[in-house]
What does this fold into?
Amino acid sequence: MSALPDGPAVAPSDRVVVVEELTRRFGTFTAVDHVTFDVGRGEVFGFLGPNGAGKTTTIKMLTGLLQPTSGRGTVAGFDLRRDTEAIKRNIGYMSQLFSLYGDLTVEENIRFFAGLNGVPRARRDARRDWVLEMAGLTDARTRLTRELSLGWKQRLALGTAVLHEPPILFLDEPTSGVDPISRRAFWDLIYQLASQGTTVFVSTHYMEEAEYCNRLALMNRGRIVALDRPAVLRASMPSPLFELETGDGPRSVEALAGTPGVIEAGLYGRLVHVLVCDAAAARAELPALLAAKGIALVRMDAVEPSLEDVFVALVHASGGAVEG
Amino acid sequence: MIDRPAMVALDGLTRRFGDILAVDALTLSVGRGELFGLVGPDGAGKTTTLRMLAGVLRPSGGDARLNGVSVARDPEGVKHSIAYMSQRFGLYTDLTVAENIEFYADLYRVPRAAREARLDRLYRFSALGPFRDRLAGQLSGGMKQKLALSCCLVHEPAILLLDEPTFGVDPISRRDLWLIVHEMVAHGTTVVVSTAYLDEAERFDRLVLLHKGRSLAIDTAAALQAAMSAAILSVPVDRVREARLVAERVPGVHRAAVFGDRLHVTVEIGDEAAARVADALRAAGHVVGDVRRIVPTLEDVFIHRIAGAA
It folds into this structure.
């Protein structure tokens, strides 16, 4: 591919998040284990990982809510250990359970959050108008917030999170549950913010959201196990992947999981996705394994992995997800 | 699926809340052993439909028959054939995993003789076995969902109703959850499941696309994708946000969306728009990679159908 994706400028002066050997222990448990990465100005950075991977603990340290046990880092130039109050004032944060007041109007919510986020009085009208315009809510400014559709509420929540023009915005599964049209509209706003220089840090379980990011970091067992552009991650799948149509998906998974040469077997709808060590050996051996259990094999094709397949393979290659 | 007897049959099923039509004359049927999806965003009517099917909410009009029993006339009778996992399923957080499952086995009067085999199967496919003695309150979100599902399945219902079972669950736990569901489907259980995630919905046997309480389409994902009346081009390009504005002005382009480092451009089928889009982008100074026609995702289908319905 000859095209150059919109990448961040990687000049050291343009790094908004810098983290080196960041570690957090809780008693004997190491939740975050010597993590090193950086995020550039204007980058849309995705943060993935199964439950228990250390994502939340990392984000708490990046947002000044939790002290690291060791290691160092800065967010927007502020030190993670010393400047936690400055960090809290200089970031934007929006979770899927955003905290808008349903019984206030759109404008009243904006005014409330402008005060909370310390927007200077002289700037408030200009910032309010900017949010209304950006979120497409100018005509709805006097409506009660609870009467808005979820898509509009999400755009308003995004607007209130950036009223104070933070250099970095943290989003937690920002478009859970909205319709695809609203989701695309929301991501257009994210891209607009990013093109104006805001760094956007997105934490999510959903590959549909991950696909929108410039780069993705995958965490497992406290460590970053992959970090790259989505297209590169898909292309760098470490092992061949086969898609099997069989007479019984669950029993096929049971028959294949844990056999030599099979790294991982899982259902993909009624189909079975099997990650193997060696493609030629798999073509020779998998049909016999199924036949031995009396399971019919309709077809078996090598397929391009989805981002979800890559995620599953990388988690497996790094010791599997923490259970419990 | 037509050759299978209908286990779930909706006939003009309707529910109003005041002036709002939450579910608007929904008619469809789900065959035995089918995994059927109610797919749509928040507010599409998914939960309201499932609540009516479960006999916990009265329809305002129409009816649905589950295993032959009418929800309008006999909502209590329906409950013998179904298990319903709502978004807030009641687990006892101060009981262990095993105690929760035992509790539901007692509640559903699962005969002692049948219990051991059923529990073995559930523990095997849910991978909950090693956590039998852990308090439910100390499980991760994904494990809680697997436990809730196991509690639902302990009486081997003919019909399983699941309301957004994978909401907030990570991809690894999600795979485990679907393995449990498919294991039941392989044994003939009929499943009606809701989701807001269209990539997940592509893996159901059939699905209904719901929008504002109405059905936009009912079919297999593959058929919906094949029947889309427009084509999607994947266009790798630099400066994608500016490129999108250029692409949207090209004659014959319905819409263009930024998708990471690519554009997804919707054009008429059979139109030579691919060359025009690439030429226009190059003329505007963009570097364009290989333009390819791609299979539309279910999300593309949904957006196209809503745009057509508006």
